[in-house]
Write a structure and sequence with these properties.
Layout (H helix, E strand, L loop, with lengths): L1 E6 L21 H9 L6 E5 L13 E4 L7 H11 L4 E6 L7 H9 L7 E5 L6 E8 L4 H8 L7 H6 L3 E4 L14 H5 L6
Parallel strand pairs: 1-2, 1-4, 2-3, 5-7
Antiparallel strand pairs: 4-6, 5-6
Helix pairs in contact: 2-4
Length: 192
């Protein structure tokens, strides 16, 4: 089973507003990404903090609340795995406005379910980009101890230590751009 997970539980402190509510494609980004993933998966969920559950941009979407104390996107991924232990997760971060159908197709076509994850190489930072990836459910027991901490755990660093398929030159670099500040947002041009 493969489900979709839109990671929308961040605090958006640098942006100054919830990134999931920002409109890039005529819809709040959370809604847009849920619709984008839907044809490829059995169900789509949105990863949220408890205080986000009533917000308009997640209304009508199935949610996974962060279960662990770790303030990291890894919390959302592992919380989803905990909720549905036999499920694999197609994950995308809500602050990636350039993610499109061809990127999702490229990821799924080359997926290796024997690995912890299949992801793209990060053009800016090098190594695995964990925020547009398929995370395999069998990795739950390896990942859960990492999110039981109260300090941030970098998902990129986690993947660097595990068996992962990293796809190189599979998508345009901008597909993996994270939009974190108002200046970043002002530069975004998306095709509608």
């Amino acid at each position: 089973m493969l489900n979709g997970l839109v990671l929308a539980g961040g605090r958006s402190l640098r942006m100054g507003q919830d990134k999931g509510a920002m409109v890039w494609h005529g819809l709040p980004q959370t809604q847009y990404l849920a619709a984008l993933l839907a044809p490829f998966v059995d169900e789509v969920f949105v990863s949220v903090r408890k205080d986000q559950a009533g917000m308009a941009h997640v209304s009508g979407l199935a949610m996974v609340e962060d279960h662990y104390p770790c303030p990291s996107p890894l919390n959302g991924i592992v919380s989803a795995m905990r909720m549905q232990p036999k499920t694999n997760w197609l994950v995308v971060a809500v602050d990636m406005p350039h993610v499109d159908r061809p990127a999702v197709e490229a990821l799924l076509e080359r997926r290796d379910a024997s690995k912890v994850a299949t992801c793209f190489e990060s053009p800016g930072k090098g190594g695995p980009d964990p925020l547009l990836a398929v995370w395999e459910g069998h990795a739950f027991s390896l990942l859960e101890p990492m999110v039981q901490r109260t300090e941030h755990v970098c998902p990129r660093n986690v993947l660097k230590t595990m068996p992962v398929l990293v796809l190189k030159d599979a998508v345009a670099a901008r597909v993996l751009d994270n939009i974190n500040t108002p200046d970043d947002a002002a530069q975004v041009k998306v095709a509608s």
